[in-house]
Amino acid sequence: MPVFKTFFKIAAKHIKSSIIYLAIFLFVGVMYSQVGDGSEKEYQLSSCDIAVFDRDNSSESARLIEYMGQIHNIITDYEDDKEMLQDRLFYRDISYVLYIEKGFSKTGKLSNIKRQDTNVGAYIDGQIESYQSTYAAAKQAGYSDDEAYELTMEALDGSELVRLSGKEANKYGNGIFYYFQFECFVIVMVILTVMGPIFMAFNRKEAKDRLEVSSMPPRRRMLELFAGALALSLIAWVFVSVACVIVNNGVFGRKELLGTLNALIFTIVSAALCCIAGNVSISSNAFNMMSNVIGLAMAFLGGVFVPLQFFGKTLGNIAKLLPTYWYVMANEGIFGGKATGEIIMYFGIELLFAAAFFGIALVMSKRRRLAKSA
Fold first, then answer.
1. What is the greatest pairwise CA distance in the chain?
2. Residue 99 and residue 67 share a domain
3. Which strands make up the sheet holding 49-54, listed edge to edge?
4. At 51, is the secondary structure helix, strand, or coil?
5. 238 and 294 in one domain?
6. Hey, which of 102, 116, 199, 351 would disulfide with 278, CB 3.0 to 4.6 Å?
7. How far, in Å, CA of 48 to CA of 172, rounded?
């Protein structure tokens, strides 16, 4: 297995940087597990008191107020006195003042007063902008006012953004759940970051030319590369799993066993994903940048950093296209007490992603050879 052996010879040259990357990501994962118990509680405070002044009095302004009212507590009985409203903001009686200006139905013009020492104003601004842009897109698509509003409410699904009970937030138990939740981000980042220089070495012109003229079939070459990536990934998984036992004070029961198995399956997925990335002929710096984008995108959209309960319908459907979503679903099922059969189904979906990624890597490798020989 010449390619497999060469893979580990190159890996040995980068052992120090590999250990450093692994230690950094493990440290972040352990810290995440320590603060994880309180991470979801912050979202419970996202309903604010908003003073609204409707100067347009149109059906469009009424719809905006109705949408905001599903998320926040709307106050309409204050006098339109700027000094008084600023005092209310200062003493935190209200969090935001919204003016729906005359002509809003045609121009969409709004104004506001907000505190500058918190991020609440930006949070509410983002919700209003999301509503306006989604509603405008629906109108441009030819829908009526009522249809556009219904589509907007369905797309944003604002009622799900803020309502998470204390029971829901705490049902996963102690910090080990959050360690496993973050572990998939650690795994994919370590694998992509550590293996980047190795794949870059195989993608050098002289290395590719030697492999092309060798008697080894291209498929076997790809299989040996995948075997090397998988073996190195399993080493990283072992370290991450040992850290899990340490974080959990030596306790390793059924949930921890299933969580570790879930991480093992995701390690296979990450190794297959790395084979796709390894088929891209780019510089080492560009590969590292690509790795960061892939890892962060999968974590954010897959529900690692933001709980899946806060995803609207559209974003939730997009998240299902990522393996991290099914890893998180399995993790929540393990620590949330779901049936073993359902958890195994999530495992199976993750393995399908691994097979798909490896198949894509084979196709990319074949197309690159055909393009070179043409």
1. 84
2. yes
3. 73-75, 49-54, 96-100, 110-114
4. strand
5. yes
6. 199
7. 27
| Whether pTM exceeds 0.70 | no
The number of CA neighbours under 13 Å toward the Cβ of 50 is 28
- For 107-131, what is the mean pLDDT? 86
- When mean pLDDT is compared over 185-194, 197-206, 266-275, the highest value belongs to 266-275
Range of the domain at 50: 46-163
Are 110 and 100 contacting, i.e. CB atoms less than 8 angstroms apart? yes
State the virtual CA torsion across 153, 327, 334, 172 in degrees, nearest 10. -50
Tell me what the mean pLDDT of segment 68-95 comes to.
89
Residue 23: in which H helix or E strand, if any?
A: helix 15-35
User: Which of 157, 131, 159, 135 is closest to 146 using CA atoms?
Assistant: 135
Which of 169, 185, 173, 180 is CA-nearest to residue 258? 180
Choose the weakest-confidence range: 84-88, 288-292, 332-336. 288-292
Domain boundary among 163, 193, 227: 163
- Report, as an integer, the average pLDDT of 222-240: 83
Q: Are residues 234 and 121 in the same domain?
A: no
pLDDT above 80 (res 264): yes
